[in-house]
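In response to reviewer comment 3 from the previous cycle, which asked for concrete evidence that the modeling workflow produces usable outputs, we include below a single protein chain processed end to end. The sequence was submitted unchanged, and the resulting structure tokens are shown without manual editing.
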Amino acid sequence: MRHEILIDGFVITSDNSAGIGEKEQDVVKAPDAITAKFAGRVALLEQWAAGSQPQAVLLHNFSGAAQWTAYMEGIKELFDEAETALPQISGSTETNMPTLQSGIAVTMIGKQCRQLPAAELLCWFVYGIPLVGEEVLTQWNKTADLALIGKGIDAGLIERVWPVGSQGIAREAELLMGRQVEITTELDQHRSGGPATCVLVGVMPLNYEQTQQFFGENLFSLRFE
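The workflow returned the following structure tokens.
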């Protein structure tokens, strides 16, 4: 498990963002739709990491009523880019108190639909580059392509995925394996992956070369010592 909650076959995942948006005191300036899309991106990848597909999305908007439409557009854009069906969306907005900085959380509820093999049985790659802050906007072409990941899962090429968060590749590898591990990769192991700009991808050994051809650029081997 990563950060998901499992309840009777349902999977609940969530991510949030603060100080990123269009408000004057936001630390990172970004369109509100982009902020929502990246918050939802992590929650969606955690659904896939648990072998599930989202059935509903809850949007928690702490920025104010003016941001709701843009946040909704960002969530819809996320599912368009991932080329997967848009679930039902509902949520709530803070309208009692004005906030000086942007704040949003996205929760997804899904159903498990895939059995996950043990991580030790798979060959692993890092797909995408770890990016954070404004790098996410300026180096978008180096981030993991959700549509490509989704197609790989549907085709049976990808067995497992595991998003990389703020603690970096090395820490996510330990969470994946459930123990301390030593890894080798040409990327910075400890750099924040921001809103899951890079993803650990696990495939069966016989699909190793096919995976390299399938993803092409921005795919890096990950070896466990």
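Residues 119-224 form a domain with the Phosphoribosyl-aminoimidazole Synthetase; Chain A, domain 2 fold (CATH 3.90.650.10). We consider this sufficient to address the reviewer's concern, and the full set will be provided in the supplementary archive.
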